[in-house]
Design brief:
Blueprint lengths: L14 E9 L3 H23 L4 H14 L19 E7 L5 E7 L5 H11 L4 E3 H11 L12 H13 L3 H6 L7 E6 L5 E7 L20 E4 L3 E7 L1 H6 L2 H10 L4 H16 L3 E7 L4 E5 L3 E8 L2 E5 L6 E2 L4
Parallel strand pairs: 3-4
Antiparallel strand pairs: 1-5, 1-11, 2-3, 2-6, 5-6, 7-8, 8-9, 9-10, 11-12, 12-13
Helix pairs in contact: 1-2, 2-3, 8-9
Bound molecules: aspartic acid.
The site of aspartic acid has 14 residues, from strand 8 and helix 7.
């Protein structure tokens, strides 16, 4: 790990990718999913076009997805077994490997912004539960009543989980989970960043911490290589440190796409876990892969938006 990409001559194309979760997205939800990820990627790209940083861009894109109740993050978060919201989020920058995260937070409208404050205003990398909420109050970050974060679809998913009493792992194997959001970006200076935010898994135990707020699991980035954000069965992702593993494959010379596929394939064979990832290299090359039935994703580079939902699908959106 030596040179930073800012010293390279090649002009970097500002690039951003987002995902809206990897699971069996039903056809009835296809439209809100693909619309949501496209809008989010445009929001993040606008930030890059204003010459703001990759960190600003991923925060903006993830905030958009947290505010859209279609997705399992912020408003619309999945509920734990007691019917409460407990959210996790992480943000990281690739220049100095600074990272901030929160876990099991309640009443926070945009957990990704709280994670950013942990990164920038504390000596820590992860704040949990009550302590994180206390820090949020000190920072004056927007807090809301939990009711405002709970949507009918999350209540319905919890009712269904209780009715069939499936385990969290089985929910994933049956593709019933409803996932996490994330973003990765590289800015014109070659700085990379990533962010991930989630309500976790429906019916999880109170206090369960998934992969999303854990460095190397829910997200990882390094200016020397690129940035990754993940979604999927958190316990599996954590066991294989999915995002750091992808960066390690890139360090060995694999493309973002090959690195993503190799790491997900390892997760399948080693721990029988499913999920998905988005990846951007420090040169703006992109990769995305998933082992679930579907994953909503969108990318934006050179003013063009591409998106997909099904395996192998890549659609270029019409310019408005
Ligand atoms: N990875 C998240 C978790 O396990 C949930 C997801 O992406 O579906 O909490």
């Amino acid at each position: 790990m030596t040179e930073t990409p800012t010293k390279k001559c090649k002009q970097i194309q500002p690039t951003i990718l987002v995902h809206g979760g990897a699971w069996t997205i039903p056809h009835s939800l296809s439209k809100p999913y693909v619309n949501g990820v496209q809008e989010a990627v445009k929001k993040g790209y606008e930030v890059l076009c204003r010459n703001e940083s990759a960190v600003d861009a991923v925060e903006e894109a993830v905030r958009y997805l947290e505010n859209d109740p279609t997705f399992n993050a912020g408003t619309g978060s999945a509920l734990n077994i007691e019917g409460d919201v407990e959210m996790d989020a992480i943000i990281m920058e690739g220049k100095n490997l600074q990272s901030g995260a929160v876990t099991c937070v309640q009443n926070i409208k945009n957990p990704v912004s709280l994670a950013r404050l942990v990164m920038e205003k504390t000596d820590h990398t992860l704040l949990a539960a009550q302590g994180a909420n206390q820090f949020a109050a000190e920072q004056g970050i927007e807090q809301v009543n939990t009711d405002e974060l709970v949507c009918e679809k999350s209540l319905e998913m919890l009712r269904e989980k209780k009715k069939y009493s499936v385990t969290v792992g089985d929910q994933f194997r049956q593709g019933k989970c409803h996932d996490t959001v994330g973003a990765v970006a590289v800015d014109a200076s070659g700085n990379v960043a990533c962010a991930t935010s989630t309500g976790g898994i429906t019916g999880k135990r109170v206090g369960r911490v998934g992969d999303s707020p854990l460095i190397g699991c829910g997200a990882y980035c390094d200016n020397n290589f690129g940035a990754v954000s993940s979604t999927g069965h958190g316990e599996s992702i954590s066991r294989v440190t999915l995002c750091r593993t992808i960066i390690a494959h890139m360090e060995q010379g694999l493309s973002p796409q090959d690195a993503a596929e190799k790491a997900l394939s390892y997760m399948t064979t080693k721990v029988q876990g499913s999920g998905g990832v988005i990846v951007v290299s420090n040169q703006g090359d992109i990769g995305m892969s998933f082992t679930t039935i579907r994953m909503a994703w969108a990318s934006m580079q050179d003013g063009r938006v591409c998106y997909g939902l099904d395996p192998g699908q890549k659609i270029e959106a019409k310019k408005c």
